[in-house]
Specification:
- By secondary structure, the chain is of the alpha+beta class.
- The protein folds into 2 domains: 331 residues, Deoxyribonuclease I, Chain A (4-Layer Sandwich); 98 residues.
- Helix content is 37%, strand content 18%.
- It contains 9 helices and 12 strands.
- The chain has a 6-stranded mixed beta sheet with strand order 3-4-2-1-12-11. Strands 5-6-7-8-10-9 form a 6-stranded mixed beta sheet.
- Helix 3 links the parallel strand 7 and strand 8.
- Helix 1 packs parallel to helix 2 and helix 3 packs parallel to helix 4.
- The chain is globular.
- It comes from Mycena maculata.
- Pathway: Lipid metabolism; sphingolipid metabolism; Sphingolipid metabolism.
- One of its GO terms (molecular function) is sphingomyelin phosphodiesterase activity.
Length: 444
């Protein structure tokens, strides 16, 4: 067990009970494979069934004795973390926006998608905060940016948590299914504000020169983890234009960053050690042994983070630009901030989603009012039913109208106000952030 590196693996297990195909066989296959690996940290997403978590935990407990299954929302977060190093703290941050309750098919609203984390005690690095997350799924890559507004809010909330962990003096490792391709706005928010390095991009600094890659080359050269033709669960499903063009998507990430050291530690030690991604690869691309199906609808991603001697002195928070603290910029070590383009695009997308949400809420409340009128008419008309056989039909129709009206009231009034308020909070937060950057001369 080398102490000069940390090996991390992330996998979306697609483990929703009754819905995910071949779940039990796949979970057992995943557990058997993970037991053969030598990773120090494993982050799993969509591990919804606690018994599945227990099975995997028991299979790898000799290698990774510390673990945490995270609870959130009505159906759980689906997130679990396993560690070789002792866990000294845990946290769960449910995302404020996660789809609409009426979108039963998507299901995101019913689960507790969140940013979860453990704090581990590392013999060389000290405290390391390891994040695991699964961002809002719907929205794709095409069309107006406001289609992905909920995912933007997820990414912003995640970025703040990761940045805060670094400012508390901890190393940060983040893994998960971000449901975003590398060039997307959510990844830009995370990269720019949280200053997280993408392990795949660091370990593969030279972009491949392949113009028309094969399905396997798309995996090995571009890091495709989802919607690959080589995955048995995505091979036959309809895919978007991006996935068809690039033979899949890179949606799963392992990221990391160095800590920001508190000012009282300046001069008290040598430059702190640094993390550097030296290897990053896609794993579990073959079918489950002896089965015709894949381990999941995603492939796994692994990264090796080497621990190297530090080359930079600790950063003094008092001399570093910190937007919320109002300190001046230190030219030698400025904190990462959002670019003007990312900030402007995010604010426009959130504002457009806010307007769309208000319009939808008005329509739903109008439907609610119409349902009330129809119900009153049914009450009055029930006295003049011409035939007894109409009664059951009449009752079923009344129940349907009552259900529709109740749903529209909840959607239009309760959820609609909740979504609008959450969006407005983030929009105003971005406005304050933008004004502070402009005042300090950082944003031009």
């Amino acid at each position: 067990m080398a102490e000069d590196q940390i090996r991390v693996l992330s996998l979306n297990c697609w483990g929703l009970k009754y819905v995910a195909k071949n779940r039990t066989e796949r979970i057992h296959g995943i557990a058997n494979e993970l037991a053969k690996f030598d990773h120090d940290i494993i982050a799993l997403q969509e591990i919804w069934v606690f018994a599945d978590y227990e099975y995997i935990r028991d299979s790898i407990v000799k290698r990774l004795p510390y673990s945490k299954f995270f609870y959130s929302g009505a159906l759980g977060s689906g997130l679990a973390l396993f560690s070789r190093f002792p866990i000294i703290g845990t946290s769960v941050h449910p995302y404020s926006l996660n789809g609409a309750p009426i979108d039963v098919g998507g299901g995101d609203w019913f689960v507790g998608k969140a940013a979860v984390s453990i704090i581990i005690s590392h013999p060389v690095l000290g405290q390391v905060q390891v994040f695991n997350t699964h961002l809002y799924a719907k929205g794709g890559e095409d069309g107006p940016e406001y289609n992905r507004a909920h995912r933007l809010v997820n990414a912003w909330e995640f970025s703040k948590l990761a940045r805060q962990a670094a400012e508390l003096g901890r190393y940060v490792i983040a893994a998960g299914d971000f449901n975003s391709i590398p060039s997307s706005l959510p990844i830009a928010l995370i990269r720019e504000y949280a200053d997280l390095a993408d392990a795949w991009a660091v370990a593969h600094p030279t972009p491949p020169s392949i113009s028309s890659p094969s399905a396997m080359e798309a995996i090995t050269q571009f890091g495709v983890t989802a919607d690959s033709p080589l995955n048995s669960y995505s091979a036959g499903k309809p895919l978007g234009p991006y996935a068809r063009k690039f033979l899949g998507k890179r949606l799963d990430y392992i990221m990391y960053r160095q800590p920001v050291r508190p000012p009282q530690r300046l001069g008290a030690e040598d430059p702190p050690p640094e993390l550097l991604a030296t290897e990053c690869a896609v794993r579990l691309t073959d079918p489950v042994p002896g089965r015709p199906f894949s381990f999941s609808d995603h492939f796994a991603l692994e990264a090796t983070l080497e621990i190297r001697a530090g080359t930079r002195p600790p950063v003094d928070l008092a001399d570093t630009h910190n937007v919320w603290g109002g300190a001046p910029v230190a030219p030698s070590a400025p904190a990462s901030e959002l670019s003007a383009e990312s900030l402007s695009t995010a604010m426009q997308a959130l504002a457009a989603c806010y307007r769309f949400s208000r319009q939808r809420a008005r329509k739903e409340l109008t439907i609610f009012a119409l349902c009330i009128v129809v119900l009153l008419g049914l009450v009055v008309g029930s006295s003049w039913l011409p035939h007894a056989w109409i009664n059951p039909i009449f009752i079923l129709f009344t129940v349907f109208i009552a259900w529709l009206g109740t749903t529209m009231l909840y959607e239009g009034f309760l959820y609609g106000n909740w979504e609008c308020n959450a969006l407005m909070n983030v929009i105003e937060e971005f406005e304050i952030y933008k004004n502070t950057l402009e005042t300090q001369g950082v944003l031009h």
